[in-house]
Write a structure and sequence with these properties.
Strand content: 5-15%
Number of domains: 2
CATH architecture of the largest domain: 2-Layer Sandwich
CATH topology of the largest domain: Heat Shock Protein 90
CATH superfamily of the largest domain: Histidine kinase-like ATPase, C-terminal domain
Number of strands: 7
Number of helices: 8
Order of helices and strands: HHHEHEEHEEHHHEE
Largest sheet: 5 strands, mixed
CATH class of the largest domain: Alpha Beta
Structural class: alpha+beta
Amino acid sequence: YIYSRFVTRPIRQMAAVTTTMQRLEKDAHYPVNSSDEIGVLGRNINELYQNLWQTIRSLEHENKRITQLEKEKIAFLRAASHELKTPLAALRIMLENMQLNIGEYKNRDQYLAESVAQVDRLAAMVNDVLRSGSVAEQALRQEKRLRIDKLIAEVVDDYTLLAKTRNMAFTVNTEPTTIRANRDMMRHVISNLVSNAVRHGDAGSVIKITCNQHELAIENACKPLTKQQLQHVFDPFYRADTQAKQSPNNSGIGLYIVKILLDAKGLEYEFAPHGQGMRFIVKL
């Protein structure tokens, strides 16, 4: 009788613990007080339950991330619809006035050229929208070990000619830096950041790029954005007044795409005034 109670007591205790585990109570735990078969079984149950909770937490996190992405997609589509509506309406008015030979629109050669330019801007905007969707979908696929410092060198080489047209130069200070990521995704991020630095930096200034195993930083000299502008800088199609004047054909979704891609990858980032300019930091 005593031996029977000695054997059945831990089994009854284990049954009670597994019942609480069925209810997914976080603190459920079987106290292991021996190294015999029952003790080994208890440890295995505890490890299994911990793995189950880790999986649940991962699924909850992924579900929140997907929900947020869906909300951002809806907001993006609404913003895209609004952004396309205005130039389409202007184009229609221009063409109708040309058709009716109204006032200055009788000069068809001039306004046909403006209409073609408007169509080109709309086409570029649509391409940006389509490209942003495809890149975001591929962001976490085909990941492999990637040398960020070499990717930076490629992107800087692409923008050197554009920088020279504004009498700008690059100073690049990088260390061999390897992360696991999708190459197209990271190139898209770096290219957008370097493009912004060139297009919105002061003419004749120097763009500073540093990279090590901890972070990537891109800094340019320009008029720092205000707190209010920084609150909207990652919104789709947002352009600060100075940016709109400098790059009127810019679609305004570059930093939005950067945000989507970095969020999908789970990389932290910061965009803030620094000295007499702005600095974008990506935590690696």
